[in-house]
């Protein structure tokens, strides 16, 4: 099967992925070839596949702790989970995804890419509490903070961190979630802009420490 035409690789990709760039290229090719068919990406995403999805996800990689166990809640196509596993082979990624078709894709790609630092759990976040607690957790395009925080916090150990990817409306989400943040006793809350000045779409992350 031929690979559909998609966005040419931006030069910044090599900077963000370094020695793991070949795996990032393979994952991007695979997502371009099967993403729309499997309902992982929309039909209009190929012209911005690198900048909007792959590189945007990779911006989070420097925020992960060395040797950490990191969960990606609602991993879907593997954005950011598989991208982070590629960019940070020293970090163990736990990809939590409730839909069977998407979980199968994540397992298939993990094997195809030869990633040894990935576990895929087919479950809703609220049902994925039986394993070891996470050091950090991330999520991208899952739900508003007020709904996402109660699902994510129980999965993270005391002293662990949330790094939740958000869009330009993040400040409004933070304000709407103020009561939830207090109830969950989150500390060190902050919003951080990533990718400013780079040739990729910027992203905002909501960061907080779990009590």
Short description:
The chain has 211 residues and is of the alpha/beta class. It is 34% helix and 22% strand.
Structural account:
The protein is built from 8 helices and 7 strands; from the N terminus they run αααβαβαββαβααββ. The chain is an alpha/beta fold and 211 residues long. It has a single domain, classed as Vaccinia Virus protein VP39 (Rossmann fold), CATH 3.40.50.150. It has a 7-stranded mixed β-sheet, sandwiched between helices. The chain is globular. The mean pLDDT is 95.
CATH third-tier fold name: Rossmann fold
* Residues in β-strands, percent: 15-25%
| Arithmetic mean of pLDDT | 95
Helix content: 25-40%
Biggest sheet overview: 7 strands, mixed
How many structural domains? 1
Biggest sheet: strand arrangement: 3-2-1-4-5-7-6
Counting DSSP H or I runs of 4 or more residues, the number of helices is 8
Under CATH at level 1, the class stands as Alpha Beta
The counted number of beta strands is 7
Which overall shape is indicated by the principal axes computed on the Cα atoms?
globular
Give the low-confidence spans. none
CATH superfamily: Vaccinia Virus protein VP39
């Amino acid at each position: 099967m031929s690979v559909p035409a998609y966005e040419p690789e931006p030069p910044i990709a090599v900077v963000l992925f370094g020695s793991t760039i070949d795996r990032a290229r393979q994952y991007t090719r695979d997502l371009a070839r099967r993403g729309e068919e499997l309902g992982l990406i929309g039909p209009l995403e190929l012209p911005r596949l690198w900048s909007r999805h792959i590189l945007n996800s990779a911006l989070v990689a420097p925020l992960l702790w060395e040797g950490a166990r990191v969960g990606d809640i609602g991993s879907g196509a593997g954005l950011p989970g598989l991208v982070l596993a590629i960019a940070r082979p020293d970090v163990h990624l736990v990809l939590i995804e409730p839909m069977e078709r998407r979980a199968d894709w994540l397992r298939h790609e993990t094997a195809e890419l030869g990633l040894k630092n990935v576990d895929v759990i087919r479950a809703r976040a609220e049902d994925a509490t039986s394993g070891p607690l996470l050091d950090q957790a991330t999520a991208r395009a899952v739900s508003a903070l007020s709904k996402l925080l109660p699902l994510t916090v129980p999965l993270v150990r005391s002293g662990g961190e949330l790094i939740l990817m958000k869009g330009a409306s993040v400040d409004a989400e933070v304000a709407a979630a103020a009561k939830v943040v207090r109830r969950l006793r989150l500390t060190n809350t902050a919003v951080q802009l990533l990718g400013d000045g780079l040739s990729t779409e910027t992203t905002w992350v909501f960061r907080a420490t779990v009590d």
